[in-house]
């Protein structure tokens, strides 16, 4: 079965990397997943440019008949209600097709593929854990193979060659890659499998100080704690970061996918859920059940803080400030547990000018400043960057009083930074300026500029 399915997928032009095809064929772990994909109620979109008129009419009639038969079968035999089908399933196959099973697992009680009578064979025995493992393993193999192939083509100077066929192949490979937003949403769906599930603990001490959650191998839950799943999630998050960088390098060609989180959430949830609603549920889970899980914190912090503009992430406008306010204000206590992972440069390649957010960043720095280990956390790195750029903006705007609105905003920024000075003194300010300059490409402030800034922030008491 794996070999047959791999051939079908290769025939559809999904996989152009030979090694990826070999990985699918030889991997016994993905047999159940591939069988699951085959049993999906696929919808085929015919290409009118490649068929004559009579052939098209016949194909459309057959498709309509198949759709009517599917509609008759896609009814719950007990309740009589319509069974759910992911609107993003079907052909042409979606760029993140290895993660398709996650959509049905999130709707396992009502999805057609699991609940249609006799849809799956009697030997169908995989657990949710096995399906998630297989989905992620397949996704990493496929996406990594495509990404590496794209890098090899670029390193080989395909863009500078006169070989039209080579250029076309390279563009096709780039165009077949999923957007980083699609991969991140897939990662988030793994964590969303925990929604509405009761927490279970074992080995709880009398004082309640240490708690050990049951393994997903036993309960079917807490799947993200499984070592195999955790490793694959880490790989997918790394691939998403690389895709952002790759897309930035091809920003002038528009060849790579720019599907946004909001658009892909609408596509995979039939428009019944916005991404902000999805992310609100995810952030609540992160706060309540993550217990410092590095991947959970990493995906939440990456998405919430990707306020990049100019098409770097989530379109021209980037992520709305509402996402950052949700994490840095509503769930500020969870920021203490963010992992000591180096924040990618693209996530720090912009300046947050929202004054409310600057206040949240300063509060976070104050709360973490006395913990030396916290200086490597994602929260510290992000807050340090935005506070550091805010301090630089004060220096660069000295003497600029032409714009009243700009002056008013600058005064509020200065007031917030004075609060930081009052709380932690000159030492932290100098540390932030130094470390922010080292972590970014910004030029270091001169000693005179730094001294002038410190004097300005310490010049008067802050009105509380």
What does this structure look like?
Residues 47-81 are annotated as: Disordered. Pfam families: TPR_RPAP1. Residues 253-391 form the RPAP1/MINIYO-like TPR repeats domain. The protein has 464 residues and is mainly alpha-helical. The protein has 19 helices and 2 strands. It has helices at 2-11, 18-26, 31-38, 53-73, 100-106, 112-115, 128-155, 164-176, 180-192, 216-219, 227-249, 261-268, 275-289, 294-304, 321-330, 355-368, 378-396, 404-439, 447-457; strands at residues 201-202, 212-213.
Furnish the topology, listing elements before pairings.
Layout: H1 2-11, H2 18-26, H3 31-38, H4 53-73, H5 100-106, H6 112-115, H7 128-155, H8 164-176, H9 180-192, E1 201-202, E2 212-213, H10 216-219, H11 227-249, H12 261-268, H13 275-289, H14 294-304, H15 321-330, H16 355-368, H17 378-396, H18 404-439, H19 447-457
Antiparallel strand pairs: 1-2
Helix pairs in contact: 1-2, 2-7, 5-7, 7-8, 7-11, 9-11, 9-14, 14-15, 15-16, 16-17, 16-18, 17-18
Pfam families: TPR_RPAP1
Region (Disordered): 47-81
Biased composition (Polar residues): 47-57
Tally of extended strands? 2
Stretches where pLDDT is under 50 for at least 5 consecutive residues are: 1-28, 44-52, 198-206, 210-219
Could you tell me the strand content as a percent range? under 5%
The secondary structure category is mainly alpha
Order of helices and strands: HHHHHHHHHEEHHHHHHHHHH
The helicity comes to 55-70%
Q: Overall 3D geometry?
A: globular
Instruction: Please tell me how large the radius of gyration is.
Output: 26 Å
Given the structure, what is the number of helices?
19
Largest sheet: 2 strands, antiparallel
Q: Mean of the pLDDT scores?
A: 79
Walk across the major sheet and give the strand order. 1-2
The N- and C-terminal alpha carbons lie at a distance of: 69 Å
Region (Disordered): 47-81
InterPro entries: RPAP1/Rba50 (IPR039913), TPR_RPAP1/MINIYO-like (IPR057989)
Biased composition (Polar residues): 47-57
GO biological process, one term: transcription by RNA polymerase II
